[in-house]
Structures are given as structure tokens and as C-alpha cells.
């Protein structure tokens, strides 16, 4: 049976990937197909599903930056959006009960509110995947979106804690002692190194946190989240998260398969799921209005709201608890699963052209933004620079080191990650914060004296977008970029880039040149010794 689970999940996930959609849509579809062919869920599959959820919460905790969460545009905006959404959508769903649809006919106001709450979350899996693939997870709008996701996850975990019906024991107060256990946790992470012991350490912490909290009558999932939060400040938190990523995604397959095995959807379920997806554009509109209310720029509000406009796998977890508690019928879990899948399709397709959409709509959208700028949204000027280097990752930093001896202060680096910029500035580099894909930035940054812009970005699509925006902004200087493959070189040249460095070809040529210099120097050294 396990082989059939893997086979159906693989085929479903691969099919969706070929269509440019999140594989988890294929996993849900695989569950429905398995159900259709008579397969049933089992304890093994449920164990995988539970482990996937626990790891997901732990990895969310690893990414938590409490400072970012404390900003009003994150935590207040998240709470406000959720409250308004639940109130309005509850009214809409309860109003639909008068249409006489079978699954709505006997729905109570409390059930409508619970369904609205389940649909209020945005998908961590979908949003993070889209932002990572577009290289925007460290941008301003990317960080806002991640912050909102984390706040939503915290709300969901709190709901799960209270809804589970457990009464914490007096020993629950001892959980505060975990704060003082951080030095021990850090020492264990350091001792684990960088190999196979590191993910094993992550499993130990995630499951350990789960069972410690469960032991004292508190929902174990909250324990996994809090253990992740305690470890988040550690220097290896990002590495630990990356080492667990594949395991988390693999075990979550079990969760999505288990949803499909609950019940088969009929035509009315599909129609209701599509009807619920009509709420997705409203979700975007509510996000946009909320963000601009908190003085975010129109572009940040637009992109953050667009990527968050979907339903969440966490909503499925909430719905699953509601079904297990008898608050909703099992058919509603299938309907929510379908709505989640359809919303992923909407977001994936819509966000692919998000930047070009904003360029067309920016004049209209800017009318709604505040005249007051938050500190993070004030554009920095590259004072005294004639060359800009966009992207200060490994390649960009290497290029900066090679150019600085010749250019000095005329060279200025630009990166969208404030933490990276801060660290580079501490190392003495001239670097400013800026998102190269931000069309507004190029309209507000003075590029009159900039003769050359180097784009050291890993994504050829990002490089293309920036090149197009520079041309639209009437930039008159030269543009150079990097690429990994020949077809990428051709694509960049066709979009207006003046010169493209092929990373592999140029690296090979550079290695050969340096090798010849070494041989030449060695020959001269030997000749000098012979003459002596």
C-alpha cells in the first residue's frame, strides 16, 4: 500500500509541476484518486501526516524574528485583517444558507464563523515557494508576507490549543524554564556539525518540544513552534531549517494524501469550492487596504497582498480538527481542500506577472498610499557612485572585492536584505538597501551619474525585470549581468542588457588565465635561480 501512496503522489506532484503549479495540488488529487480506487487511510499515513505538521511548525519557529513581528504593519495588520475577514465572510457564508444548497442548508452561525476562520489563513507552503522561486523572500514585501504568515500560524496554533479541550496541569508553568535551557540547546546544535547529525538534532527538538508540552496538557504543536522560536536566534538556525526542509515536505505529503482519502468530492462539492474561491480577490483587496492603512507603499501592499491571496493548508488543519470534534461534517474538509487547491492555482498564475501588473496599475494604486513613509521605505541614494552592483550575494560580493581597488568609493553595492547590508557595512563596504525589482526605486534614485549597473542576481527573470524597468526609467548608462547557461545569455541580451557574463565560461577562462600566470611566475623564478 505504501508503494501505491508514493506512486500516486509522485505522478500527481510531477504532473502539477509540469504545469507550473505547486506539487501539493497533485498530492491532494492523488488522495482523491486513491480513494476512488478503494484505498483507505491507515495509522502509518496518519503518523506521517502528524509528523509533517509538527516539523512545519518547528521550521516556522526557526524563521521567527520577534522584532519583525512586533511591527504594527505585521502583527496589528494581521490581526485586523483576520477579524474583518471572519466577520464579513461569516455573514456571506451564513447568507448563502438561504439559497438552499445541501451543504449549507443546516449550517449554524457558529459553523459559518468556524469555516470563515479556516479560510482566513494564507498558505505558508505556497507563499514561501513562490517567494523563493522568484528570489524575493528577503525583499520588503517578502518579509511582510512572511511576517503575516507567522502571525496567522500563531493564531492557528492558539486556536488548536484551546480547541483541543485539554486542561493544562500545574506542571505547565515549568515550561517557562525552557528559556533558561537555550545555552544547552545551542551547545547541542554546535556539536551536531553540518552533516547528518544536524537534521537529526532538528527532529529531536521538534518532537521533544511536542511531547514535553503534550505531557503537561498543552497542545504539542505549540511546543514544536516554541522550541523553534528559542533556537531561531542561533547562527545555524537557517542551516537547520534547510536541512529539515525536504523531510518536512515529504511528511506533509502524508497529510495531503490523508485529506483526499476522507471522502470523494461530488460535483456540488466542486461547485461550492469554486464559489468559495470567489472570495480570494476580496482577500487581496482587504490585504491591500489594510497594508496601505499602515503606511506601506502601494507596491509593497500590492505584492504582499497578491502573494497572500490564497487559502492555507493550515486552514485544512483547523477544518480537520473541527471535523474530528463534530463541529463540521467530513464533506466540508473535502470542500476546503478543493478550495485550497484552486486558490493555489490562482496565486501561482497571478503572481508570475505581478511586477508587470504593478507597472500598469501603479498610477492608480499610488493614489491610496500614505504621504508618510516608514523608516524601512525611505530610498537611500548612492552618493558619489558611478557604478552600482545589484545583488550582494556570493557572486556580487566577489565582484565587489575585485572592483573596489580600482573604483574605490565610486562603487556602491545594493541589496534587498537589510541584515546582509548591515553586516557588509560593518565590514567596511559601501552598500545600501534597495530592491532592484522595485520600479518605484528607479524613479526615486538619482542615476544621472551612474555609468554602469552590474546585476549579480541568480534569477535570469529578476535580471530581465530590472533591465526592463531601468529602460522604462530612462536610465542612459550601461547594464551588465551574469548568467549560467547559453540560453540565458541570449535571453538577457535580447531584453536590452549590454553585456552578459557566463558564470561557468568566465570562471573557466579566469582559472586558465590565473594558472598561466602562476606557470609564468614559476618559470621566471626558476630562471632567476639558475642564473644565480
From TrEMBL:
Residues 7-346 form the Cation/H+ exchanger transmembrane domain. It is found in: Membrane. The chain crosses the membrane at residues 83-105, 111-132, 144-163, 169-185, 245-264, 270-289, 301-323, 329-351. Pfam families: Na_H_Exchanger, TrkA_N. Keywords: Antiport, Ion transport, Membrane, Transmembrane, Transmembrane helix, Transport. It is a multi-pass membrane protein. Residues 387-502 form the RCK N-terminal domain. PANTHER family: CATION_PROTON ANTIPORTER YBAL-RELATED (PTHR42751:SF1), SODIUM/HYDROGEN EXCHANGER FAMILY/TRKA DOMAIN PROTEIN (PTHR42751). Belongs to the monovalent cation:proton antiporter 2 (CPA2) transporter (TC 2.A.37) family. This is Cation:proton antiporter family protein. The lineage of its organism: Bacteria, Pseudomonadati, Pseudomonadota, Gammaproteobacteria, Alteromonadales.
Amino acid at each position: 500500500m505504501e508503494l501505491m501512496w508514493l506512486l500516486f503522489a509522485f505522478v500527481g506532484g510531477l504532473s502539477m509541476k509540469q504545469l507550473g503549479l505547486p506539487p501539493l495540488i497533485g498530492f491532494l488529487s492523488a488522495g482523491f484518486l486513491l480513494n476512488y480506487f478503494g484505498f483507505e487511510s491507515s495509522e502509518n499515513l496518519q503518523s506521517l501526516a502528524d509528523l509533517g505538521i509538527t516539523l512545519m511548525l518547528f521550521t516556522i519557529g526557526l524563521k521567527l524574528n520577534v522584532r519583525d513581528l512586533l511591527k504594527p504593519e505585521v502583527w496589528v495588520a494581521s490581526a485586523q485583517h483576520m477579524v474583518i475577514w471572519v466577520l464579513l465572510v461569516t455573514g456571506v457564508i451564513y447568507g448563502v444558507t438561504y439559497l438552499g444548497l445541501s451543504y449549507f442548508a443546516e449550517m449554524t452561525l457558529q459553523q459559518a464563523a468556524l469555516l470563515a476562520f479556516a479560510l482566513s489563513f494564507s498558505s505558508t507552503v505556497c507563499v514561501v515557494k513562490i517567494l523563493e522561486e522568484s528570489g524575493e523572500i528577503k525583499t520588503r514585501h517578502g518579509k511582510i508576507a512572511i511576517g503575516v504568515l507567522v502571525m496567522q500560524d500563531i493564531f492557528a496554533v492558539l486556536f488548536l490549543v484551546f480547541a483541543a479541550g485539554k486542561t493544562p496541569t500545574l506542571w505547565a508553568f515549568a515550561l517557562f524554564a525552557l528559556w533558561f535551557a537555550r545555552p544547552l540547546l545551542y551547545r547541542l546544535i554546535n556539536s551536531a556539525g553540518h552533516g547528518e547529525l544536524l537534521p537529526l538534532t532538528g527532529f529531536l527538538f521538534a518532537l521533544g518540544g511536542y511531547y514535553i508540552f503534550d505531557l503537561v496538557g498543552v497542545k504539542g504543536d505549540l511546543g514544536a513552534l516554541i522550541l523553534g522560536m528559542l533556537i531561531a536566534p542561533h547562527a545555524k538556525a537557517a542551516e537547520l531549517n534547510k536541512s529539515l526542509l525536504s523531510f518536512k515536505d515529504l511528511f506533509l505529503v502524508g497529510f495531503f494524501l490523508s485529506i483526499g482519502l476522507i471522502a470523494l468530492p461530488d460535483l456540488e462539492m466542486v461547485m461550492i469550492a469554486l464559489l468559495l474561491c470567489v472570495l480570494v480577490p476580496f482577500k487581496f483587496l482587504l490585504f491591500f487596504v489594510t497594508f496601505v492603512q499602515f503606511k506601506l507603499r502601494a507596491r509593497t501592499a500590492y505584492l504582499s497582498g497578491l502573494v497572500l491571496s490564497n487559502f492555507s493548508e493550515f486552514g485544512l488543519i483547523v477544518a480537520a480538527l473541527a471535523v474530528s470534534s463534530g463541529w463540521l461534517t467530513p464533506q466540508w474538509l473535502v470542500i476546503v481542500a478543493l478550495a485550497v487547491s484552486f486558490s493555489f492555482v490562482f496565486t501561482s498564475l497571478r503572481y508570475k506577472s505581478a511586477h508587470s501588473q504593478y507597472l500598469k496599475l501603479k498610477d492608480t494604486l499610488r493614489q491610496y498610499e500614505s504621504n508618510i513613509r516608514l523608516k524601512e521605505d525611505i530610498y537611500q541614494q548612492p552618493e558619489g557612485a558611478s557604478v552600482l552592483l545589484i545583488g550582494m550575494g556570493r557572486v556580487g560580493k566577489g565582484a565587489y572585492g575585485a572592483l573596489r581597488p580600482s573604483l574605490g568609493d565610486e562603487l556602491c553595492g545594493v541589496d534587498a536584505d537589510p541584515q546582509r547590508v548591515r553586516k557588509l557595512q560593518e565590514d567596511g563596504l559601501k552598500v545600501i538597501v534597495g530592491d532592484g525589482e522595485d520600479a518605484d526605486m528607479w524613479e526615486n534614485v538619482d542615476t544621472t551619474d551612474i555609468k554602469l549597473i552590474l546585476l549579480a542576481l541568480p534569477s535570469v527573470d529578476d535580471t530581465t525585470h530590472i533591465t526592463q524597468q531601468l529602460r522604462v526609467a530612462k536610465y542612459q548608462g550601461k547594464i551588465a549581468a551574469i548568467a549560467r547557461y547559453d540560453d540565458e545569455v541570449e535571453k538577457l541580451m535580447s531584453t536590452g542588457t549590454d553585456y552578459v557574463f557566463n558564470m561557468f565560461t568566465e570562471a573557466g577562462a579566469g582559472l586558465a588565465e590565473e594558472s598561466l600566470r602562476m606557470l609564468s611566475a614559476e618559470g621566471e623564478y626558476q630562471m632567476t635561480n639558475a642564473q644565480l
